[in-house]
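Hi everyone,

Forwarding the result from last night's run.
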Amino acid sequence: MSTAQSIRRFPRRLMASLSDYSLRQRRFAPIHPYKQSSAPPLQGIVFDVDGTLCLPQNHMFTEMREALNIDKKVDILHHISRLPTPEARLEAANKIKAIERTAMTTQEPQPGLVELMDFLEERGVKRALCTRNFEAPVLHLLNNHLPAHVFLPIITRETPGLMPKPDPAGILFIANEWGLDGGAGGLIMVGDSLDDMTAGHTAGAATVLLLNDHNGHLKDHAHTDLCIERLDELIDILDSGFVGHRGGGKVPTGTDQGIQYI
């Protein structure tokens, strides 16, 4: 079944409700095999790519905007999608792809990347990717730094029938492909941008922000459930049981007496 066919299976009432998804404290049971909890189980993790699996390459965005002659406040993909002709859209898309292809040759893995992925594989946690990149840089990273690991599905900006982040469609598609009856409520979205946090939150997933020198202002954003400075910090967090916004004011979705889904 094609991606476009699968996305049409999402109930309209679910999609319509996502923009008003309520703020709540997120919890998942420990994935350590000998730790028990009545919190809901973690059903998988979705990762962003640039700035999340590899170190940020923010210079790309400056170069892209210069190539397209647009202001730094203009979303690059939105700008391209609104160009008046197919020829103009193709030309602009090829310009930013050329910049991405050059940048991918200098990709560096995030600290703790392999350790986290080895841990998740050992624990049997499903992993997928949802990125605003196109496919070539994604495969370059996986082939060079994570050749032994499998991520399915891989959602890029060119996946047919799906809007790119911050739209939640990619994350919802992943949940649908994994056969999750509760949608994305059992997932965690790990990323480094507001697009990642908003896409995850509006899909119903918990969100984890990987901090860097440029995104500290998102630490207290309503769409951010937890912050880490290294990917392998997630090992202890997941083994002990994920709890979003420790000490925050969000209302938990459940207690030790039972989980209430909203």
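The first helix runs from residue 3 to 7.

Cheers,
N.
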